[in-house]
Automatic annotation (TrEMBL):
It catalyses: D-maltose + ATP = alpha-maltose 1-phosphate + ADP + H(+). One of its GO terms (molecular function) is ATP binding. It is an enzyme of class 2 (transferase). It comes from Nocardiopsis mwathae. Pfam families: APH (PF01636), Mak_N_cap (PF18085). Monomer. This is Maltokinase. InterPro entries: Aminoglycoside_PTrfase, Kinase-like_dom_sf, Mak_N_cap. One of its GO terms (biological process) is glycogen biosynthetic process. Residues 251-372 form the Aminoglycoside phosphotransferase domain. Coiled coil: none annotated. It comes from the Bacteria.
């Protein structure tokens, strides 16, 4: 490995967006390097290949380059290290340039000018000029990607883990352009990456970043729901609808917004139906996930018969199941409340899944199930480690039921598939999501494992 690759091998595993934590790194290779800003300071967009246990993943790194000793104090936290770069005997300080507004202005300018240069393509959507000359600030809290906010106008999401192909976030957001329920897209950055599927050959256009409106007045849906739950806990004894900060009205409006987005996606993009045989295959995949989870987390075994029964009922659904493009990773953290109403964000789906798989049509009830699970999480996570957990648990369950019902009512009234009339399908998707959560929490947040386990216990009664 080069000096730079050795530095990256030590730096990448410490980043929140790195998906391979806990597995030794066998290889790091800079697969592609695209100069964005030449000279000093410089900005290079790197595509870095990381090998672990015989498999490889690609990541995007915005590499800042300054002479050693010239890295400003405010960039010290972004430092990767000091090294010589290939073909250059100068010693350079290299760092994560996402945190350097002096350099990231070039990304906004590139999209505004629709620049094409040295393997990078900056694309702008029609409909108005982009205001350049704004400094960027990295949004905190993200785990899978890195977003830069330019002034009060734009947010540029840079996708850290790269899969060949057009990112669903770009595809679906542009399909929904003009909808009041999504942040308006303005452009994107792309390059060509080798296809990964055996026999595909060649290269495919791959999304590196997406530019959208920045919703400066927005409040995260998870934050709003958590505030409502805290208000309920402060008024113990009152039903959720009578406690201060009742969330049901917002949950119903969120259900309506979700249905509107699903209807728009069905109009703009291809739809299909799943035959009973295809339903059987889906149910089989759910059973395999349950078997794997039960082997890893023995506490799940007591609920396995009820879960398998639900999957059997799903497989026995006689009528074809309509499928379409959906959000794919839907929960309260993927929606924000603005002055005008609810807005859905982050249509990329699960970043750990290849793009070709994320683009497959699915039942919109899978999104509904994801949001219902999120209500359960919002209701219970604040009780972890609380001395009042036993006393407040009934209130948490009541809050979740109250808002789940409101969301489903709003979804059905706005023209979505009525969850009440498709319980076998919804139940299977929700159970499958909960089993996934059991695996995730056992591996990453053991103290939270009781949330999906308790939810499964409640759902299977």
């Amino acid at each position: 490995m080069s000096q730079l690759e050795e530095l990256l091998a030590g730096w990448i595993p410490r980043q929140r967006w790195f998906a391979g934590k806990g597995t030794p790194i066998e290889k790091v290779m800079v697969e592609a390097e695209h100069p964005v800003v030449t000279g000093e300071p410089g900005l290079r967009l790197l595509v870095v290949e990381v090998g672990q246990r015989g498999s490889t993943s690609r990541y995007q790194v915005l590499l800042g380059v300054r002479r050693a000793g010239d890295l400003r104090d405010e960039l010290a936290h972004a430092a990767i290290g000091v090294c010589e770069l290939p073909g250059d005997s100068t010693t350079w300080a290299v760092y994560d340039a996402a945190h350097d507004p002096e350099l990231t202005t070039s990304l906004l300018e590139g999209i505004a000018d629709e620049r094409t240069d040295r393997g990078l393509r900056f694309r702008r959507l029609p409909g108005g000029a982009i205001r350049t000359g704004q400094r960027s600030l990295v949004l905190t809290g993200e785990q899978s990607n890195t977003s830069l906010v330019y002034g009060e106008d734009y947010v540029l999401k840079t996708f850290r883990r790269l899969w060949p192909g057009r990112n669903p976030d770009l595809e679906l957001t542009t399909a929904l352009a003009g909808s009041p329920f999504v942040a308006r897209p303005h452009g994107w950055i792309e390059t060509d990456l080798p296809a990964r599927r055996p026999g595909d050959g060649g290269t495919v256009p791959t999304t590196l970043a997406l530019l959208q409106d920045y919703l400066r007045s927005a409040t995260d849906g998870w934050v709003l729901a958590a505030t409502s739950v805290r208000d309920l806990y402060d008024t113990t004894g009152l039903p959720p609808g009578d406690a201060g900060g009742d969330f049901a009205g917002e949950a119903e409006r969120l259900g309506s917004a979700t249905a509107a987005v699903h209807r728009a996606l069905a109009r703009e993009l291809p739809t299909d139906v799943l035959t009973p045989d295809m339903l059987g295959e889906l149910a089989g995949a759910m059973r395999l996930r349950l078997d794997s989870a039960t082997a890893e987390i023995p506490e799940l075994a007591r609920y396995a018969p009820a879960l398998r029964s639900a999957y059997d009922a799903f497989a026995a659904v006689a009528e074809p199941l309509p499928v379409q493009r959906i959000h794919g990773d839907y929960h309260l953290g993927q929606v924000v409340r603005t002055d005008a109403g609810w807005v859905l964000l982050d249509f990329e789906g699960e970043p750990a899944v290849p793009v070709c798989d994320r683009r497959r049509p699915a039942s919109p009830l899978r999104d509904v199930a994801g949001m219902l699970r999120s209500f359960d999480y919002a209701a219970h996570y604040q009780l972890i480690g609380s001395a009042s957990e036993e006393a407040l648990a009934p209130a948490a369950r009541a809050w979740a039921r109250h808002n789940r019902d409101a969301f489903c009512a709003g979804y059905a009234s706005a023209g979505g598939v009525d969850p009440e009339k498709h319980q076998a399908v919804l139940r299977a998707f929700e159970y499958d999501k909960a089993v996934y959560e059991v695996i995730y929490e056992a591996r990453n947040r053991p103290s939270w494992l009781r949330i999906p386990l308790d939810s499964i216990a409640e759902l299977t009664r």
